[in-house]
Design a protein that fits this description.
With 122 residues, this protein is an alpha+beta fold. The chain is built from four helices and six strands, in the order H-E-E-E-E-H-E-E-H-H. The protein has a six-stranded antiparallel β-sheet. It is globular, with a radius of gyration of 14 Å. The termini are far apart. The relative contact order is 0.18.
Length: 122
């Protein structure tokens, strides 16, 4: 089985810069790659796949999950969890759009008392 590549450090740093601004969000080494959590809830997980592609997974509202699934690449629906979707990361990734998606993911996963402190994208 092929090895999973390490996520480029600049991508992990970029994700951390965004996610660690959220109240009580913490970074952790995951089974592969890096994840960010609030309490016991995963907000985002970035990792390299055996296909040598990089992915970030996050949470979305149920109606958005279906939309991402139908959009196709670079979006995908994860095979685990009802509200888990993801994005293939590459040199063309729209980091502004990803920041909005991760903000929504945090607000879905965080307790209301924390989510209410985060300005949401329009």
């Amino acid at each position: 089985m092929p090895e999973r590549p390490d996520v480029p450090p600049e991508w992990v740093r970029r994700l951390s810069d965004l996610l660690l601004r959220f109240p009580e969000c913490v970074e952790r080494d995951a089974w592969t790659g890096v994840s960010w959590r609030v309490g016991q809830a995963t907000v985002a997980h970035v990792f390299g796949g055996e296909d040598q592609l990089f992915r970030v997974t996050f949470r979305a509202e149920p109606d958005e999950v279906m939309a991402f699934e139908h959009l196709g690449a670079p979006y995908f629906r994860a095979s685990w969890g009802r509200n888990v979707v993801g994005l293939l990361l590459d040199d063309d990734t729209d980091w502004g759009e990803l920041a909005e998606l991760l903000t929504d993911s945090y607000c879905l996963q965080a307790p209301d008392r924390l989510a209410s402190q985060v300005p949401r994208p329009a």
